[in-house]
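The instructor's notes for this session suggest beginning with a concrete chain rather than abstract definitions. Hand out the sequence below and ask the class to guess, before any prediction is shown, which regions might be ordered.
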Amino acid sequence: MKRKSAPDPEDNHECESSMSPSPSQRKKVRWEGKSRVTATTTVDSDESSGEESENSTSSQKGNFFNGLMFSVCYMLFSTAASDASTDSIDTLPSGRLGCAYYEPIKRILFVMEDTQETAYFDLMRMLLEQVDPDVVLTSSKADDGFIEMINDFMETANGIFQICPFKEFIPSKGRNKLLSLSRLSNFPDESDDIPPSSETESSSSRPNNAYDFMRCRREITGDPTAIRWNASIRLANFASIETSPLCLGSIGALLDYILRERALSALDDEGIEGLDIKDIEILCLDQVMQINADALLSLQVFEDESHASVHSDKTKEGLSLFGILNNTKTTQGRSLLRTWLLRPSLSVSEIRSRHDAVECFMRAENLTTANALHNHLKGVKNVPRIMGLMKDGKAKLADWQGLVKFTFHATMLRDSLSELHRASEVKVIKKLMSVLDLATFKEIGIKINQLVDWEDSSNNDRVCVRPHIDEDLDNRKHVYHGIDDVLSTVAKQICEIIPFGFTTSLNVVYFPQLGYLICVPMLDEWRTESGVQPLEGWTFQPWDELLTFVSSNVYFKSQEMHGKYFHMDHHIGDLHSTIVDRELEIIQGLLEDVLECDGAVRAACDVCSELDCLLSFAEASRLYEYRRPEIVSENSIEIIQGRHPLHERVVDTFVANDARVRGGAGIAADVAFPDNEQWNSILLCTGANACGKSVYLKQVALIQIMAQIGCFVPAVSARLGVVDKLFTRVSTRESVSKVQSAFMIDLAQVSLALRNCTARSLLLLDEFGKGTLSTDGTGLFCGVLQHLLNRGANCPKVLVATHFHDVFNEDILDPEHVPVSFRHMQVMFTSSTGATVESSFVCDSTSAASPAPSAGTLANSMNLRPTDKITYLYRVAEGLSLNSHAAKCAEIFGIPTLTVERAEYVTDLLSSHMLNVLLDEKMSDVERSDLEDAEAVCRRFLAWNLKEVEVLREGYVKTKLGEILRSMDIDAS
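After discussion, reveal the predicted structure:
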């Protein structure tokens, strides 16, 4: 996106509110020769700036700010992650980010649900570069590094950066403001579409459904509950942010800012309801694929399992795509892999470069070297965290050891890279060769090793300096280590001058910060009220009176020590403190030298984390027999013998299947098909219950994700175009907090997909419409497919699974004319003797890209006996299956046989339109006899020829009916 030119400063105005910073705390930003005020604090302006603000406000009336306003909320938190190489626990700084921005020209509010952010704020940088906002708002509780990064960007872009109080980013307030927008709270006005009639105008008429009732109530009372309920339901149609507190908080702060700007202009202040926001859309990055939380959950990209202990709130990764691909050895590598899965790349060149690296590491001649590289990465600790601790002066001995290990393993990595065959053109190898400054790293490692005494540091639990580094420090340490002999000599000299019998023993001891003291045992007479009675010239040292009278020793300083031995306190002094202080000075000098290489170390760690992920991909691809996909510019997906990467791990045998679909091949679309074969945008799969339809749909999406993160895929071959957005209607996350039924949640997911999908998007619809009346669900299902097909060249790639078999006819979805690829999952039936039951439909074709099947190729229902058994083949074939075989599925999964047989009997009656047989089952013999008589009368009446001449005579029909009734002994009266 090109950066737009800065607008004229006279068309804008300063933010005047209760949050205005004081003049001493404002930051000036140059804007085309003039200055704009950028608020960098959350305190109110003082009285000295009141007159200036008033004049500024009055001069800016009538000029509503028309720049892009961006609001972002970032929260830093820490999680514990075990290091792959040791049993130690590293604290990983991590954060989540949610944001929103307002485009005032189009009057569109863009929102992005909460997502993970890296330690270098890569996502935020991409957002700022893509949106290029004029105003950025963030919370006062945001990380200092995050605030500094935004401030630097806005200074370069000549924009406004304002830090707002945290209370403006409260999620509940943001949600309330969002639901108050007229775009969500107002009901659609359908009064113009309803023709007037006596029924609608009658006051006695009643509404036909809940929506009519709520509309009538709104017209009379303006029910706020109905308005809020409607807004909360419609919100899910625009964006899935109900579970994104940071995004909701950002929206609240953004709307507050817009309202303040409106209040300063000449516009009428109508409050939040007066904001004319035309639409709410999802903020999508143009560099990465958009995958929302529902899709991540449905596809099991991540899966958190609770700890086995009920007393622990920790979680571990379960069976997930991240779990099977995660063979990383570094904390940074694990974090980067998670980021790649959250946001797969859209850059074809970047994806291909990752595939080149994985292919290089998988070559037979490079296996040993790749394993060596991975082992060296195992020794690389979380060095960016270590450098941050050193910068803050909080580094411990383990941090220094980790840095030295990094310098060693970086050298070994550099040596191992030269042993790779045909790796000169691999991008990550070239990057690593350029950032591994071996001279600098070796110099750092040598300096630390020569300066730090590891053994002494471990014993003293602090960083100590080696001998022969500082002469004065060595002398002090020599005296400190020989102080025992000095104190023994002094004690003997004092014993010679004290009165005989004063004490049984005497010691001279040294206490840091207290100096040298005479220690004698406590006497019984000193425990009385008179207290301790020192000798003449001695001074009692009550350095801890409580311990003095409780302990068995007391401490004195003698006059001789102040005199003859004065040099002990004055010249020798507090040896320990002076040694520690001197060592700190030396370590500080070493720290300054290390921090000069901070940028080089961090750059090397970033490339090492990328190498860690790619080596992990190579290991998983080699272990699970993945193949390299071909990334093309065409908008298509072609998978040959694809497999589900998770499902194949938990079953003994997995049946691979093909899939071919092409975006933009809707109705009346002019699309060139490869190999003269028709590829449709919609692939519709039918079949029996539990036959593998959902697995088939999910495996296509997972293969696409794996390809776009740079990993090989579980397929014989794959030719894939880039997918920009992935939406699913597969699983339903129900919760009482949503105040929505399962069907409403499904509708929200589909509505979100229809509003945001493009021709390059991938949409999964698994049994959409099943949560309501079958006729309504069928209508919605057909309506969605027809809507997507009518998009023509803008039709996304859609994978559908359904049990609505009655729609495949000429009046609804004609298989011969709609551009839909019909597929079904094959099953096999066997009799009680083991013989295969012949099917009325046999699919001989194995191609998955043929045109839509004709009506004669439909797999019709078969006449099965109760003893026949069903076998799932899990193989995709052309055509439609018009029977779900639910009864057989129920029998397999434990439903009693009698219940299953009854269900099959009722199903047969329904299909043959003989439901009246069920009504006859509870009739008595008398009732059945009366019913037969009545039927006979009706049949005789129906057989009567009413065209005869005598029938037209008056009274003839009555007379004739009386004769019939009397003949059947029925009272004609």
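Then share the key points. The mean pLDDT is 78. The longest strand covers residues 89-103.
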